[in-house]
Design a protein that fits this description.
Largest sheet: 4 strands, parallel
Helix content: 40-55%
Number of helices: 8
Number of strands: 6
Strand content: 5-15%
Length: 215
């Protein structure tokens, strides 16, 4: 049984798949190196889905920040390891905010209060998330399909390919929604060793309500 890390990127347009794959792998290696513990880098595969919702990728060679395909967040190695700080107070405030947000926006039956607010925010700032949850129709090479179905299928195929391996899924942002949905609805009996999320919106009332609706 081989060990494999499967990465799932987040919302928004991305650079070309090969470059993003290399940057993810470099970031993982950088983090492992900083542990100071000897390791063997597992196989890594990136689930790339930005091309489903975006006509063409961002371009690392474009220097004009106003160009719509300007890449404003290229991978750069960390200059130093950050010093661990006491965040206990911040954590208490965030925990309180999460609890308050649930009481304000989420009902006991998992429906959302003030849905027009979250709908407006999603529509104006998170187009990819809107396309995913509305399962918008997309046309690629003259073939009509649905956004959410296509995005999930990318991850499903990779998981099936590695079904005999020891799988560690690490997902960022909206990628954590995709991974959660696949493991919950599409492949409920599929086993993975670890599922890690970074900057995940899974706890947001709006997202939790939509997950509950699909159940």
């Amino acid at each position: 049984m081989a060990k494999v890390i499967i990465g799932v990127h987040g919302l928004g347009n991305k650079p070309r798949k090969e470059l993003l794959h290399d940057w993810w792998r470099l970031a993982i290696v950088e983090g492992l190196d900083k542990t100071g513990v000897a390791y063997t880098m597992p196989m890594f595969e990136l689930v790339y889905w930005a091309d489903i919702l975006h006509e063409k990728p961002t371009d690392e060679t474009i220097t004009n920040p106003k160009d719509p395909y300007f890449l404003d967040e290229p991978y750069t190695p960390s200059k130093k390891t950050s010093i661990k700080k006491d965040i206990s107070v911040r954590k208490k405030v965030l925990d309180w905010f999460d609890e308050a947000a649930d009481k304000i926006f989420l009902n006991n039956d998992m429906t959302v209060n003030y849905s027009y607010i979250s709908d407006a925010i999603i529509h104006n700032y998170f187009k990819d998330l809107e396309a995913y949850y509305l399962n918008e129709k997309i046309i690629k090479n003259g073939i009509e399909s649905f956004a959410r179905d296509q995005i999930r299928e990318r991850l499903r195929k990779v998981l099936i390919k590695h079904r005999s391996d020891d799988i560690f899924i690490v997902s960022h942002s909206m990628g954590s929604i995709v991974a959660y949905d696949i493991l919950t609805f599409n492949l409920p009996d599929f086993e993975v060793h670890t599922f890690a999320t970074i900057g995940s919106p899974l706890g947001i009332p709006f997202v939790r309500s939509l997950i509950a609706l699909e159940k």
